[in-house]
Structure formats: C-alpha cells, structure tokens
Amino acid sequence: MTATPAAPTPATTPAPTSSVPPPAEPLHARTVRMPRSARRKQLLRAAREVFVAHGYHAAAMDDIAERAGVSKPVLYQHFPGKLDLYLALLETHAEDLVERMRQAMAGTTDNKARVHNAVSAYFDFVDSESEAFRLVFESDLRNDPAVREKVDRMERGLIEAITDTVAADTGLDRPRAELLAVGLTGMSEIAARWWLDRASEVPKQEAVRLIESLAWRGISNFPLQTDPRQL
C-alpha cells in the first residue's frame, strides 16, 4: 500500500516589525525619589548656581528645575515662587556666616586670636563658598524689602557677635563697642570681596595676616577691662 505524501507545510510569514519606537520615558520620570529635606537641599544648590550665574532677575524657574533635574511641579511643591526660593537660599548662607563669626569669638579668650578668627571667618567663607558669598553680598535684589531685612539681620548678627566681646574686654559702652565691631566686619568683608577676584595674586593666608595686622594695631590700643572676679 503506497503512503500518501504529506502536504507541504506552508511557510510561516514573519510578523511585521513595527518601525514605530516605543514611547519615550518622560524626562523627569527617572528622577530619583529622595527625602523632602534632601530634595530641598538639591533645589537650593541648583538655584544658587543659576542665581549666581545669571542674577536674580534673569534667572528662571525653568532653568532651576532643569539644573536640578526635576520637573517644575516638583520645584513648586517646595517653593511657591522664585522670591521664596531666593530668600530661603539667602537665609541659609547668612546664618552660616553668622555662626562662623560666633565660633570665631567663642573659640578663644586671646583677643589677637579673635581678630584673626574674625577676619578668617570672611575669607574662609569666600574661599569655600564663593557662590554663596556673591549671592549674599553682590545680589542684584538687595533693595527688595524682604531681601534687605534678611541681609540687615545677618549684619546685625555679625556685629553683635563681636560687640559683646569688645564691650566685655574693654569696658566701652555699647555704642562705642558696636562702632569698633562695625569697623572690623566692614574691613573684613570689603577685603575678602576684593581678594575673591585676585586670589592668585595674594595667597589667602597672607591676605588674612595683612588685614588682621591692620585691625589688631588699632584694637590693641584699647586697654583690657579687668574682671573683678580675677582680683
């Protein structure tokens, strides 16, 4: 009996391959989730870079969101507007500088060392946080009332940190001790701002030594007030 040959299997036609690529993942869908405090620090860091590079008025929230790698809705969840973001950034750095000055005064009872520490507080802030320094002292928004209030509060904190020490050690009344504190902070700030753009010409340690020598020659002429408890 002759077997009937099997019918040929029809060739399988491959499924057509779509030339349309899969939908792209949204740019911000890959943003890493992080705690709110960490996200806030990230946004402030990005804002600082944008504000320093472009100035407040030319900076845009779009630029800040892009620099931080987040969407604008994420940025607005933390800061309702550009001014709110700027004020938060300004306050952070202003508090940092005031705390540096308080530590400069409290770290020693040697007044010559205190003068050195006070001058160094400005130069160290400039050296390690040059963007923050420009934001605080070279802002194009200094005339805004909210900004002015925070800057004034920072300046008062810096002056008071030195005034307390000067008044206690010299016996000068508050207004005169305050005037000396204003002179020391003003000298240190302006010198540090000048040095910021000329760091290659004068090493920081030498710059600090020059300014502290100038300040110490004046302040050291005020006699120490004797503490009755030491008699």
Low-confidence stretches: 15-30, 227-231
Number of domains: 2
Global mean pLDDT: 81
Order of helices and strands: HHHHHHHHH
> What's the shape?
elongated
- What is the fold named in CATH at topology level of the largest domain? Tetracycline Repressor, domain 2
Counting helices, strands and paired strands, the structural category is mainly alpha
What is the H level of CATH, i.e. the homologous superfamily of the largest domain? Tetracycline Repressor, domain 2
Beta strand %: under 5%
Supply the number of helical segments.
Answer: 9
Q: What kind of sheet is the major sheet?
A: none
Count of β-strands: 0
Gyration radius (Cα, Å) is 30 Å
- Please report the first level of CATH classification, the CATH class of the largest domain: Mainly Alpha
